Structure formats: C-alpha cells, structure tokens
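Morning!

This is the sequence you dropped in the shared folder:
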Amino acid sequence: MNNNPFQNPYDFSDRKYFEFIESLPVAIYRTTIEGKIVLCNRLFSVMLGFDSCEELVDYPDIKLYNNVKDRGYLISSALMLGRVVDLPVSFVKKDGTQIWCSVTAKTVFDDEETALFLDAVFREISGEIDDKHDGEKLDCVVDSMNDIIINFALNGEIIDINNSGSQMLGYLRNELIGKPLVDYVVQNQRDLFILFLSDILKIGKHEGILSIVDSSGMVHHLEFNTVLVKKNGKAQQIKGVARDVTERIRQQKERSLKEKLQGVQEMAGGVAHKLNQPLTVISNLLSEVLNSIPQDSMNFNKLEKVQKQIEKLNEITKKIASVKKYEVIDYVAGVRIVDIDKAS
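The structure's back. Tokens below.
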C-alpha cells in the first residue's frame, strides 16, 4: 500500500498545502474517479473511525458508502455539473456505524479536460437526521385518493405507496415497499435523483417533475410536491404527492411542434413569394430571348440550360410554399437545415 500521499503529480504535492488542509476544521479527502482514496486530512479519518490518514490511502472509497449506488450518483452529478454542494449522503464508519454527512465535491480535471479526481469536503449532520421511520403506513383515506401518494426514506427507499401509485407503476404494493424509488426513474434522470433528495433535505420541500418507468416500460411524467417530515427537530422521512402529467406534457410538445411548423410554413410562404416574383420576370425575359435567336446559335443551348435550371427553381419554390411536414439534415458547423427533397 502506498503510504505517501504526495507521490501523484496531480495531488497535493506541496507539503505546506497539506499542512493547511490539516489545519481546517472540516473533513477533506481526494479520491480517484475509479474510487481509490489519494489522501485525506486527520478529521476525515477520525470522523470515519480510522486510526490515521495513512490507513485510508488507496482505500476503496465505495466501502464508505451506506448505499453503494450513492457513490455512482455523486460521481455522475459532479462530472455532469462540475460540482455538487451540501449533498446529504449516508456513510458507514470503520466499525459499521452509520453516519450522515453533507458533502460538497468538485471534479478535478487535467490540462486535456480528463476527469482525474474528486475533491470533497464533509460535514457530519447525523444529529440533524433521524431516519428510523418505523415503516409508517398510509391511512385508508390517503390510500383511496386519486393522486399518487408516496412516503419514502431519506435515502430514497419507498416506505409506502397508495393504490393509485402502485397501479400506475404496474406492481403490487408489497413489491414496491423497500425498493429505491430511483430504480423506477428513467435512466437519464437517475444521476440527478440524488440532487432531488438533497434539495428536499436542505430546503424542506421540493417541487418538480420526475419521469418514471412502469412495469411495461411506459414512461410517466409525474409532477411531485414533496415535504420533509421531521420528528423532534430531526429529518425523518419524505412525503410526496404526485400527479401524472404525461398527457399535459404530450399536449405541450404537440402544441410546440405545431407552433414551430406554423413558423416554418409562414417563413417558407414568404420566401417562396419573394422568389417567385424575380423568377417569373427572368423566365419571361429568357423565353423572349430564346424566341428571338436562331436555334443553331452558339448561345441557344446555353440559354436553354439556364431556362431548365429556372424551372427547377420554380419547382423548389412550389415545394417551399406547400410545406406541411418536414425533416431536418445536418449542414455545416453544427447547423441543421430543412431537407427540401423530403418536405411535403
């Protein structure tokens, strides 16, 4: 095991800087993106029950997480956003004791913008959280509501869900209880789910839309209103009320597409009108010129080719004027343009 935290050329190679982070009143560590701890300060090792910083060098940091998925979400969020701030995460000390920490982390990149490390500051918040929810169940009134009602733990596990929620997801209620809610979130939103939980724990409530996948693979867009439930001043669980707004979002997208198409049609009509006028004049003048010169003239064939190209331009303007639907194609420098040949 490497006991020298200064060997890596990208880490805190300046001993004075290391002495500086040792003097800070917060726990600090650096880990590789792959998950090996590069270094930490004494407060970090003490907080997690280790005898020294050296004991943690090269230690797999995934072993410190109460839920190993939380590390993936933390890393993904930091890579996507560059940093995360005050993210509540559950960790496990060396002796197996669970603690809650508020984590602020930043991704460290090299000169080629390759992610190398995650630098993080930890503040223990176990005294602010009581995650013993005792499996509190929804009452019969809530269970019969049309809205989707979900109680979930601070780590995102479902404590209880009413009939509307279980029917929407397509599972039996008992199949859902104890499962992480994030498992039912669409793949491209899972990295942000931990930030969703973080906002609830920091602010005490959260409103937003989560996209959920049911047992058949169908996506439902749920508008959530959540509130943090506290007991004796400590955060205990999260209660959420959700409405399925899938149809509303579909209608909004449909309306947006119609408005976009209308804009394209209006623009296309205006362009076609403006093009038609000079093309008509050119076409008429060219016909007069062709009728006035002999067909065996050296310029006759050239002018005839010009006339055919003008006829093609007239066909294009007719297509532009009558666009009802269209496809786009890549052009240059990331610009996308309407494919006139496929427009109809």
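Headline: Residues 249-342 form a domain with the Helix Hairpins fold (CATH 1.10.287).

More detail when I'm at my desk.
O.
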